[in-house]
Amino acid sequence: MSGLWNQTRVSSLLGIEYPIIQGPLGGFSSQRLAAGVSNFGGLGSFGAHAMEPEAITDVIAEIRSLTSKPFAMNLWVSREDEGAWTSGEAEFQRAASAIVPHIERLGGDAPVFTLYKPIRFEDQMRAVLDAKVPAFSFIFGIPPREMLDEARRQKIVIMGTATTVDEAIAQEQAGVDVVIASGFEAGGHRGSFLRSSEDSLTGTISLVPQTVDAISIPVVAAGGIADARGIAAAFALGAEGVQMGTVFLTCEESGAHPVHREAIRSGRAARTGLTRGFTGRLARGIQNDLMQQMNRPGTEILPYPLQRSLMRNLAIPAQKAGNAELLALWAGQSANLARCSDVHELLQALVDGAAVRLNR
Ligand SMILES: Cc1cc2nc3c(=O)[nH]c(=O)nc-3n(C[C@H](O)[C@H](O)[C@H](O)COP(=O)(O)O)c2cc1C
């Protein structure tokens, strides 16, 4: 094995210089951030789970106009929870009653019940396959076999996310190239798919070495890594790459709202917590008044993604008012280490720090 930390199976499979992945950031992704990370020599990702297929095609073209280097597109395999189809207006009004007083105080529009209009994963993935992206990552399950076969034929590097060792084994058996082992420190959603998220809360320091022992394909560590010390720790556990999310959220180039970015940068993120209250699925963000309220026993929460759509009605006026107590402020447990003013500077510090700690 080479003595240089960055020469791993992950960097060679992806054709990148540094095995540092800017994790997909769902609706907070940006073409500029993804391209910036890729241009530096890492792997930028774009989280496209909420987008229509045509919009995904456009985003891929935009990223390609900003970089000629490899990048990843990311989707959610499972896009709705049981009950999304049958939940009706009565449930909607009960769930809305938790946030209507806030919306009224902020002068926003009252939530209006509409029928659930799904976007199909298969259609989204078709857009990703047709565009022949360099890499495809996913969460919340494993795509259908024929679609993975097609990705392989097109030489798209396939990266599956696992929150438990069992999920990593299932990903390897499905033929993915790389497993992203995501510890429960991570910001955003827990992408569990074999057991409930609540039952899949393994920390990175425990999950990574057990995953490395259980599978033979390379493992990328995610969750709680925000600086070069975290990269060195992940590599010591056997990871061949890292995926970082929260720290990239704080870069100017990210799609995060300034209130969100500032809440992390200002050190308000001292405490993060898990909640289903913001979208219907378990996810980690900064503890604030809204999270406390939504986690109170008895609060009605709609199935994913209905709860997410409902909460948009509050997010819009809360963002306008700059009210950080009434917003979903996604962040991981290392949010207080997350500092980025410029993505290039951040990456330079990460690779310099990793070289000092890891090169032999
Ligand atoms: C705001 C936000 C949105 C995210 N959206 C996605 C997503 O759509 N798909 C995905 O696979 N991971 C998503 N993640 C997870 C990140 O890509 C990454 O794995 C995680 O943030 C790593 O943990 P860290 O936050 O401690 O750095 C998201 C994370 C955050 C903070």
Compose a concise summary of this entry.
The chain is an alpha/beta fold and 360 residues long. The chain has helices spanning 9-14, 31-40, 53-66, 89-96, 100-106, 121-130, 145-153, 165-174, 204-214, 228-236, 246-249, 258-265, 289-294, 306-321, 343-358, and strands at residues 20-22, 44-47, 71-76, 135-139, 157-162, 178-182, 188-189, 219-222, 241-244, 272-275, 283-286.
Give an account of the 3D structure.
- With about 350 residues, the chain is an alpha/beta fold.
- The protein has a domain at about 10-80 and about 120-255 and about 340-360: TIM Barrel (Alpha-Beta Barrel).
- It is about 40% helix and about 15% strand.
- The protein is built from 15 helices and 11 strands.
- The chain has helices spanning about 10-15, 30-40, 55-65, 90-95, 100-105, 120-130, 145-155, 165-175, 205-215, 230-235, 245-250, 260-265, 290-295, 305-320, 345-360, and strands at about 20, 45, 70-75, 135-140, 155-160, 180, 190, 220, 240-245, 270-275, 285.
- It has an 8-stranded parallel beta sheet with strand order 1-9-8-6-5-4-3-2.
- Strand 10 and strand 11 (about 285) form a beta hairpin.
- Helix 10 packs across helix 15.
- The longest helix has 16 residues, at about 305-320.
- It is globular and about 60 Å long.
- The structure holds flavin mononucleotide.
- Flavin mononucleotide (FMN) binds near residues 185, 186, 222 and 223.
